[in-house]
Amino acid sequence: MTITSSSPSPENGIRPSTTLGRTMLQPRWIAMLLLALLVSGAFAWLGQWQLERAVVSAETSEGPTEELLPLADVATPGEPLRDRVIGQLVEVDGNWVAGDFLVVTERVNRGETGAWVVGHLSTGDNANDPAVAVALGWAADRDTAEDVAAALNDRGDASELTVSGRLNASQAPELPDGDDPFEMTTMSVAALVNIWPGLQERPIYNGYIVSADAPDTLTTIDAPAVEQETTVNWLNIFYAIEWVVFAGFAIFLWYRLVRDSWEREQEEAEALLADNGPVE
């Protein structure tokens, strides 16, 4: 009678068959899994970091803020304004220069075209103290704005005050379309230098402040916060995807190593069983 062995036996040196799940629970593979999870977690963190850097906001890259800052901290007289400070809320101490209030026409405020009243603010009594142009308020018609400017010039108040508002860049001068050759239609610091006496030798900020408070009979100029532009860095997104793939690959590599070891054990067991052959 021929007896055929149906399974490996410990007595003949052949290891018993085991499942893939039991192989995964072996101490060495559990230790390898913990290492794979640690590596995968590091890769996942790097992917998240790259994803956060992919979205770049002007606000997070030193852009304009709603924090009120001294004008001297964000701008330098005589030099162009940096893009990141345009729209910044600023404050400055000084006094109005008597007789230098004037009108700028063709100013749009909340969808309506009117005129601004603009003042010349001196930040000190010395000749080296810089000056800054200030847009005080808006009127629906030019006559009202001119009446306010004339009243301010007649008053001649030279007391020190603090002006706060939003800093804007100077505009290019434009020739007037009307009959008045002295009409200003843009807020141009270059044009104001030629109009206000003494500014050829005195430093002036190459920008102007839109005042947060308007005089009586004028409307506060609408000066909303600068909209933050958001750009996407696709290279960082690609790197983030790569790190996620690497994290998944670390777990897959562990699984592949366990499976290869289990399959090798099964093949060795089958080979030993085949070498023993049937027992007579």
**Whole-Å distance between the termini?**
7 Å
- Tell me about the largest β-sheet: 5 strands, mixed, barrel
Oligomer: single chain
Strand order of the largest sheet: 3-5-6-8-7
Low-pLDDT regions: 1-14, 57-62
- In terms of DSSP E residues, the strand content is 15-25%
* Class from helix and strand fractions: alpha+beta
Q: What sequence of helices (H) and strands (E) makes up the elements?
A: HHEEHEEEEHEHEEH
Integer tally of domains: 2
Key descriptive features of the protein:
280 residues, 22% strand, single chain, disordered N terminus, 5-stranded mixed beta barrel, 9 strands
Descriptive notes:
With 280 residues, the chain is α+β, with helices and mostly antiparallel strands. Helix content is 36%, strand content 22%. Helix 2 (27-54) packs antiparallel against helix 6 (234-276). The longest helix is centred in the C-terminal third of the chain and has 43 residues, at 234-276. It is rod-shaped, with a radius of gyration of 39 Å. The N and C termini lie close together (7 Å).
